[in-house]
Design goal:
The chain is α+β, with helices and mostly antiparallel strands and 461 residues long. Helices cover 64% and strands 7% of the residues. The protein is built from twelve helices and four strands. A four-stranded antiparallel sheet has the order 1-2-3-4. A hairpin with a 5-residue loop joins strand 3 and strand 4. Helix 3 crosses helix 6, helix 10 packs antiparallel against helix 11 and helix 11 runs antiparallel to helix 12.
Length: 461
């Protein structure tokens, strides 16, 4: 059996290297876009693994929509099913893929050429040139690319965690608004019934000539005032419910029963101030800025490294038309005379300065926001206590007035006015309680979530 020629061996090597490169190619399959709306019709069909949720308070809470959703369960459902968070997790998947791509080694380059003599002698043969090259500069810059991509992945991860925390806060705020509106409706509907009965009786007395028009007019004004409050409350409740459905990723006609009444928790302002700066540094958005700054540091370092001459080396195996074989190597070196990557270095340095200032400003504003909220807390608490005392005093007076009215010792107009004053004071107390709870949610949002352990926010889906 004849031995393979050198030309055949060379061709076999070229074919083998090409086949090796093609062996790792990924396959493609199309994915058509959806044609139908896909919104859950009920929260009961959504399964949530509490232990996978990113925040300590939620991960230790049981999700059971069968008995209604309390404030924490609403927040759990929002983290698991919010449409914007699903897209944010897709962004995290892209960042992970980019980090993986940045860590891959650069591929070598294979070049093959062949020439066929057209007017040579009988001793001439086909020539070929086989060149295997490698970009050394790309290999030297790999560490900075990988470091920048890894830091970018961690930045997206922290951004996702911060976005999840914002969704949790928004879900709690909507829960507070809706339950407060239910409490207000429970106060307004009996008042409307009382005033409507009073107005009906006044009209009858007016028709019989036993009452003047000014008394009936006062009753009508009071009744219309309460009806206006109820109408505004119903419109606001519909809007808040629609916002909650969108936040939870549910259909607009999905049944959703809220259970439990939230209350403002007592806080120790001095303790919060003592550990505030440390707590703020753990906030996911500030962590994301630090990761972004670290990524920019790597980009800056890579730009500095890229000013060095670009180097490409390779091995060459060739045969000319006379049948002479040669083996050699090639070296390509750029000369950093005019460019030297100075423009990119200036850009990366300026970008790093911008990120430095952004982090400092965010840290300063975060501290100021929480400190201001703590300063305003005593004022709101004092107003709520004063209003509750007023409710108690008016409630006692209203009880005495009702007994006097039933005994015929108090005119109906004075009785209705006292009941209306009590209603207004109760509504004021409910609104102040809502404001106090909303401020508590805002304060917790600005301080950042409780993260006793390092958590992967992408696992909360």
């Amino acid at each position: 059996m004849p031995r393979p020629s050198r030309e055949m061996n060379t061709n076999l090597w070229a074919i083998g290297l090409t086949a090796l490169g093609l062996a790792g190619c990924a396959s493609y399959s199309p994915q058509p876009l959806p044609e139908r709306v896909d919104l859950p019709q009920s929260a009961t069909g959504i399964v949530i693994d509490s232990a996978s949720l990113p925040f300590h308070r939620l991960s230790s809470h049981v999700f059971n929509p069968a008995d209604g959703l309390d404030m924490d369960e609403v927040a759990m459902l929002a983290v698991a099913n919010n449409p914007q968070l699903k897209q944010a997790r897709d962004d995290l998947g892209i960042a992970r893929a980019q980090s993986f791509a940045a860590g891959l080694l650069p591929d070598p380059q294979l070049g093959v050429t062949s020439d066929h003599p057209t007017n040579g002698t009988s001793g001439n043969t086909n020539s070929f040139n086989l060149n295997l090259g490698y970009d050394i500069s790309a290999l030297l810059l790999r560490s900075s690319r990988k470091g920048a991509a890894t830091a970018r992945e961690e930045q997206v991860n922290a951004d996702l965690l911060w976005q999840e925390w914002q969704v949790v806060s928004q879900a709690r705020l909507l829960f507070i608004k809706l339950t407060t509106q239910d409490a207000l409706m429970k106060q307004l509907q009996p008042a409307r019934a009382l005033l409507a009965d009073r107005y009906r009786r006044g009209q009858q007395a007016l028709a019989a000539g036993n009452l003047t028009i000014d008394s009936v007019g006062a009753d009508l004004v009071a009744l219309q005032g309460v009806e206006r409050q109820i109408s505004e409350l119903e419109r606001s409740r519909l809007q808040n419910r629609a916002s909650l459905d969108g936040l939870l990723g549910l259909s607009s006609n999905a049944p959703l029963r809220l259970a439990g009444e939230p209350s403002a928790e007592p806080i120790d302002a001095a303790t919060l101030r003592a550990g505030l700066e440390k707590r703020l540094k753990e906030r996911p958005d500030l962590q994301a800025l630090r990761d972004g700054y670290r990524s920019q540091e790597e980009k800056f370092r890579g730009a500095v490294l890229a000013q060095c001459p670009a180097l490409n080396v390779g091995l060459t195996r060739a045969r000319d038309t006379s049948g002479l074989y040669t083996l050699g190597f090639g070296l390509t070196l750029s000369l950093p005379i005019f460019n030297a990557n100075r423009g990119n270095i200036s850009i990366e340095r300026a970008t790093r300065k911008k990120l430095f200032d952004e982090y400092q400003n965010r840290l300063n504003s975060a501290y100021s926001e929480v400190a201001t909220a703590l300063d305003n807390l005593p004022l709101l608490q004092g107003q709520l206590q004063q209003t509750r005392r007023g409710v108690a005093e008016l409630a006692t007076a209203a009880q005495r007035a009702e007994a006097a009215y039933r005994a015929g010792n108090l005119v109906a107009l004075d009785y209705v006015r006292l009941q209306t004053a009590l209603l207004d004071k109760r509504v004021e107390a409910i609104n102040l309680q809502e404001a106090l709870m909303e401020q508590q949610i805002a304060r917790e949002t600005r301080r950042g979530p409780d993260l006793p352990e390092q958590t992967n926010p992408g696992s909360s889906q």
